[in-house]
UniProtKB/TrEMBL annotation:
This is Metal-dependent hydrolase. It comes from the Bacteria. Keywords: Hydrolase. Pfam families: Metal_hydrol (PF10118). The lineage of its organism: Bacteria, Pseudomonadati, Pseudomonadota, Alphaproteobacteria, Sphingomonadales. One of its GO terms (molecular function) is hydrolase activity. The keyword Hydrolase applies. InterPro entries: UCP07580.
């Protein structure tokens, strides 16, 4: 019963998704104890950035699930299997980030304002065409995949962080890479009657809009959390900018992958980085969930 979900795309020609892709649902649990206040190597900037990201995940990933599920009708068996695996993984991610966010609050951080902003932004999507929500999901899933690749490819990002928090982010990153093409495959299915130009123009425009909002809101959220650590003004701004663009520089490092999204004919699996999954997935083998 405890088997990975094999996505057999050998006969599919719709995208470059690997023919032997396996999406494994790992039912892991983390952060049920205590975590240091500044869990990212004792550094306030890395801690603030990742706490701000985590605070958005419970509502954000629920939004992703609904956006993808809204377009599953008529999906071929391969895509239907992708979507089922995606939903199971995202449900587990939501649960674990709720637990992590609770620890952040126990450490004294007030993240309710971040959650409230996400709630208000998602309320604006009510009544919007479902394809618009899928386009946003596709863009944000590319962000999670880019950061997941960077976190696994460069262990220095978390090497001195709290061990259990590090394991949570590694586990999340492994599964984000595995399902990085699902929203995109769903988009291709949902827009199969569109012209190539219309599809490219829409996803590119949405990525630009999502990028602006993503960095604006995460910057504001991180500044708020840093202020709660007593760090404000130029010291907060420079410290966060240095963290994101210089050392370890996650934003600088993911820029080429972000730019690739605008290439006509782009697909997330143009870059097969499953070797990163192999480096870490064995750590979580005891937590496999049933495939179906």
């Amino acid at each position: 019963m405890n088997a990975p979900i094999r996505i057999d795309t050998a006969s599919a020609s719709r995208n470059p998704t690997p023919a032997d892709l396996t999406i494994t649902v790992r039912d892991e649990r983390f952060n049920r104890g205590t975590t240091p206040r500044r869990w990212w190597a004792g550094d306030a900037f890395g801690t603030a950035w990742h706490n701000a990201l985590s605070a958005t995940f419970p509502r954000g990933e629920a939004f992703f699930i609904e956006a993808v599920k809204a377009h599953r009708d008529g999906a071929d068996p391969q895509l239907a299997a992708e979507i089922r695996a995606f939903v199971k993984q995202e449900i587990n991610h939501t649960r674990e980030h709720i637990a992590f966010n609770r620890l952040a609050e126990d450490a004294g951080y007030d993240i309710k304002a971040i959650d409230k902003r996400v709630e208000e932004l998602l309320a604006l999507t009510k009544g919007r065409p479902p394809i618009a929500n899928l386009a946003v999901t596709m863009a944000l899933e590319h962000y999670t995949a880019m950061m997941a690749h960077e976190f696994l490819a460069n262990p220095k990002h978390f090497e001195n962080s709290d061990a259990e928090v590090r394991e949570m982010w590694r586990w999340h990153a492994v599964e984000e890479i595995e399902h990085k093409g699902v929203a995109y495959d769903t988009w291709n299915h949902a827009t199969r009657d569109w012209s190539g130009w219309k599809s490219w123009k829409t996803r590119s425009l949405v990525m630009v809009l999502v990028t602006g909002r993503f960095f604006k809101n995460r910057w504001v959220d991180s500044m708020n959390l840093l202020a709660q650590d007593g760090i404000t003004g130029w010291k907060a701004r420079w410290g966060l900018f240095k963290y994101l663009t210089i050392t370890p520089g996650v934003v600088r490092r993911i820029f080429p992958a972000w730019l690739a999204y605008f290439k006509p004919g782009f697909h997330p699996w143009d870059h097969d980085d499953r070797e990163l999954i192999g480096k870490y997935s064995g750590d979580f083998e005891a937590a496999l969930m049933p495939a179906e």
